[in-house]
Amino acid sequence: MANVIERGIRSVVGAGVEALAAANRRRLPKPKAHPFLTGIFAPVAEERTIAHLAVEGRIPAELDGRYVRNGPNPLGDVDPRSYHWFLGDGMVHGVRLRDGRAEWYRNRWVRSTRVSEALGEPPAPGPRRGRSDNANTHVVKIAGRMLAIVEASAYPVELDGELGTVAHHDFAGTLRGSFSAHPHLDPATGEQHAVCYDPETPDVVRHVVVSSEGRVIRDEPVDLPGGVMIHDCALTPRFVAIFDLPVTFSRRAYVEGWEFPLRWNPDRPARVGLLPRDGSGADVRWSEVEPCSVFHVANAFEDGDRVVVDLVTHDRMFDRSGWGPDSRQVRFERWTLSPGAPVMRQVLDDTPQEFPRCDERRSTQPYRFAWCTGLGLGGEALQLGRCLVFHDLARGGRQVRDFGPGRVPGEFVFVPRAGGDAEDDGWLMGFVSHEDGDRAELVILNARDPLGEPQAVVHIPARIPAGFHGSWIPA
Ligand SMILES: [Fe+2]
């Protein structure tokens, strides 16, 4: 997420309040150790290129491409009093696989204007919008381009094969507003669907569709007052689901000086809206749900006239801490939306986990497997766990892979085997960070044997801080 949140709302709060917020920022309590600037989250200070990585096991020769992951990595000094995990300068970490070898590891800051200035470089080319151009949340491939993306403000940023910034990118001039960190692919059409919000226009969100050719072909506004934060959406063949949940812009938090002034709002009812993919914003059909917070959807599909959404829920969000996620209870759930009825919530797994992924060839369709990253709870802020959780949604049950003391996995993504069709015919791939020193791993698991010996472990002699989302980008 961009630090646009704080800047973008200037138009909402006015210049006088902005000055007061700036003064109050200096009076915020200073954390002893900021939970998202220390330990596994501590940023790295330089960009590195490391060739010829050591590999245990065997990298399948057909894996020709790059695993790339984005996340916040503030460049230079930041004020720990007001810094929020979602605001750090975007940095991508990647490993190039080819011919059974791990050719290199690279990490590169995504060139926002701020990063380019701090590095003494000219600004990256391409259009800008909003108050921030920090694309720090995800990296995806759309219409042949590798794009670093973020919600709420910035345009996507195109990266080259060595993770350098090519240009800021507005889908050939067709994107007229903010984008999202979580567009969802419809495999039937090749379209990417996103629900986008922007703190500069806090009374409306937009359903944006990008064609397989990389042009915005729909930008439908939906009236939604109150400055709600919407990190993800859900997509089925007929609908896109809009999460109107109680995390909203807080004028009080802003005035207090917090750079990320989104807070749990107990006065806001919670609901989920189904917008027909070709309908107008007035066609949304809302269903009430018990108040909670959602960042991520694993997948969604239709069952007759019902819509089923698998997602991770947080009991509260931004309720106790101004520095990052602070939920007390996190669960993997199945929500069923029926016309005219409240959302029916079913707990699939009540152990804390996040970053759910599926075989994206099954996006919008009934599916069997979901893969999540374990979390730790306790204290003021969310912590990452040491495990991955593998769900078999058809047969029920889950398997847990514990990476052991000091090894912290991030999000793992599924990479299908060429020519295979089964959901587990392929590999699960992601970074495992080490708590004790300058090393990390790219771990490749066999999806059919996720608890067994890894297919391969690529040893990276560099620290990779915990981050957000990534993708396997085939060559
Ligand atoms: Fe996310």
- Report the count of strand segments: 33
Estimate the strand proportion: 35-45%
Label the overall shape: globular
Task: Flag low-confidence runs.
Answer: none
N- and C-termini, Cα separation: 28 Å
Mean pLDDT: 94
CATH topology: Methylamine Dehydrogenase, Chain H
Structural class estimated from helices and strands: mainly beta
Helix content: under 10%
CATH class: Mainly Beta
| Helix count, DSSP H or I runs of 4 or more residues | 5
Radius of gyration: 21 Å
Query: Could you say which small molecules are bound to this protein?
Result: fe (ii) ion
Largest sheet, strands/sense/barrel? 6 strands, antiparallel
How does this model look, in words?
The model has no long low-confidence stretch (mean pLDDT 94). 7% of the residues lie in helices and 40% in strands. The protein has one domain: Methylamine Dehydrogenase, Chain H, CATH 2.130.10. The chain is globular. It is mostly beta strands and 475 residues long. The strands form eight sheets. Strands 2, 28, 29, 30, 31 and 32 form a six-stranded antiparallel sheet that branches. Strands 1-5-4-3-33 form a five-stranded antiparallel sheet, with no helix packed on it. It contains five helices and 33 strands. It binds fe (ii) ion (FE2). The site of fe (ii) ion (FE2) has 8 residues, from strand 20.
The gist of it:
By secondary structure, the protein is mainly beta.
Could you list some keywords that capture this structure?
33 strands; single chain; five-stranded antiparallel beta sheet; mainly beta; Methylamine Dehydrogenase, Chain H; six-stranded antiparallel beta sheet; 5 helices; 475 residues; globular; binds fe (ii) ion
